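Sorry to interrupt, but I need a hand with the structure work. Could you write out one complete protein record for me, on any chain you like? Just paste the record in under my message, thanks.

. . .
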Amino acid sequence: MAKSTITNGQDGASVRSALNTMFDDLYIRHPGYIAGNWYMPFGHVSAAGVSLGANSIRCVPFFLPQPVTITNMGVRISTLSAGGNIKVAIYANNAATGRPTGSALASTGNMATDTATIVSAAIAETSVVFTPGIYWMCSWADNATVICRSQSGASGMVPQLIGTTTEANANTAITSTSLTIASAQTYGAWPSLTAASFTEATTASHATIHFKAA
């Protein structure tokens, strides 16, 4: 592996270049996404979850280390809800607020929660190409019964990637939970989240999304 160093007297451009190379060396060692393969978000660990709650968009951030085109997304249902539905989406991150923003970049329609199994659906958008960066994976259920596999409390993506204004949420004493942000929204078409209000929940009350690359 090539190594970069910074020495006294380097100009700003060369320092930035060296820092970018160091960042690549340390953090972006991902081989790239293979068309046709399914993936978990980079750095996430699947674990038991809790109820998503009805009419509440639940989101956690994730990092894409390489460009990828996403065609399908899904979740693993661990506790069914007969006659219910769930849908998932990916939103952009507002770097200034550390919250999801804008309209959904990629989203599914309804996926039935009738069976405790893995479910997925094609995204509604066409040819969605994601560049490396931080995004939000969001899940939305029309009932308070369904439970999906969630992010492990050991992952800690919100305090690690986004941070929190609540000190206790940055280093929770509950090792089995992970920080989730939630926005109360009546179940329906995916809304813009630019002006949405969010609360933090120290429970694994979201669904970890898996996705298919093209």
